[in-house]
Amino acid sequence: MRKLLFIWAICxxxxxxxxxxxxxxxASQVGKLNDKMQExxxxxxxxxxxxxxxxxxxxxxxxxxSLVGSAHWMRLQAEEETEHAMKFFDYVNDREGRVILKSIxxxxxxxxxxxxxxxxxxxxxxxxxxxxxxLVKLADQVEDAATHNFLxxxxxxxxxxxxxxxLIVDQLSLIGDSKPGLxxxxxxxxxxxx
Length: 194
Prior knowledge:
Layout: H1 2-31, H2 35-64, H3 68-94, H4 114-141, H5 145-175, H6 179-189
Helix pairs in contact: 2-3, 2-4, 3-6, 4-5, 5-6
């Protein structure tokens, strides 16, 4: 009887070991990123870092014009874009991918007016929105539900980015060349907390 129980225990041990090994291998295969998805996520890391660089350039422009509220708003925007890049960075690593950083294009540093700066910021956010939407489509094409789910944060974030930058463009357009109006908007932008 003991011999039979011992053999039965060994069989269970071998069987559970085999099943655990198969499940671990399957989970590992599910966890890895598709090569095209990894490449495109790496491109998005670069795009997010470029965004941070662009917003820092815009902050520098506003500093040079003594519009410290607008500079503050742009600095916070740059920090947010860096955080986005790091979310993508961590996600690629979590999915057993390889992050490959590439050079970041130099942004413009000259604008005709504060309105022109925010028009460029709005246009840039439209471009980033398109990039995020393309990532969602690719995740669906390669049947990567985890990446599709991960990207939903950025889909929602882009709605907020477009709304806030468009509102500032609209307000600056309304005031025209009014210096008091510009200073009022600048003061309001300086109150941004995150």
